[in-house]
Amino acid sequence: MSSRSRMSEDVWLAERPRLLSLAYRILGSWHDAEDVVSQVWLRSADRTDVANAPAWLTTVTTRLAIDQGRRLKALREEYIGPWLPEPVATELLPEESAVQRESLHLGLLRLMEELSPEDRAVVVLREAFDVPYAEIADCVGKSLQACRQVVSRAKQRLPRVTHAPERDERLMAALVTALAAGDMAAAVELLSEGCVLWTDSGGATKAARRPVIGADKVARFLIGVSAAVPGSSADPVNVNGAPAFRLKWPGGTRIVVLEHDGENISGMQIHSNPHKLEFAL
């Protein structure tokens, strides 16, 4: 093997975690991110004319992820019930800075689904990886000014997620206690007035097929489900760099992720599609 080939392999192994993280942020699916990065590897295998390997790998990964994102967006229109980004156990994620890790929060990834694949790629490259606008423009085929506008609009629409593990854990523990006791008042007290609950099952498990909206309705739904499923248990886990909890029910395992407004629980994601929990359990 030539020194050029060995260097290419070394660069690939060093860059692969970053490429996975990039593709996952654009797609919201670790499984699809792995598929994209595998395609990048196949395309890079025969290349010996790349002057800047990291930049080339970033461009190819981004473009393939955008193409895959377009296909997935069409498929998700046929998905049964709400589609939520796949949770990934924090231990499986690449090492990143605290600022980068914020952009992996499932609450933010859920909101990112509102963006087109192209705009999502622009935001990810700029906000998560600090790629210069000129390089982003070349990567996605937009003008530099258009890329700046995409990021500006996204910042207005998407809240900045800050990590407060102790607060998250406190809210989770209090909610689990309230549900176990069937205490409606205590549960409502933890929820914001406009709290929204999404359940992602893809039709594989019994779940609400539409979002549940409002503190009273969410609390009533959760207490009703808890009462109807005796013998369940809740264990703390960490996904996407933030605390969550795993519900073990006779009918299967759920991952529950909380979104909050700084004080109360403003959103709740219940992930119960077993095909999307492979990397979280």
CATH topology of the largest domain: Butyryl-CoA Dehydrogenase, subunit A, domain 3
Report the total helices.
Answer: 11
Rg over CA atoms, rounded to whole Å, is: 20 Å
First-to-last CA distance: 39 Å
Q: Report the average pLDDT across residues.
A: 89
Q: Give the number of domains.
A: 2
Strand order of the largest sheet: 2-1-6-5-4-3
The computed structural class is alpha+beta
Proportion in helices: 40-55%
Domain RNA polymerase sigma-70 region: 15-73
Subunit structure: Interacts transiently with the RNA polymerase catalytic core formed by RpoA, RpoB, RpoC and RpoZ (2 alpha, 1 beta, 1 beta' and 1 omega subunit) to form the RNA polymerase holoenzyme that can initiate transcription.
GO biological process, one term: DNA-templated transcription initiation
Family: Belongs to the sigma-70 factor family. ECF subfamily.
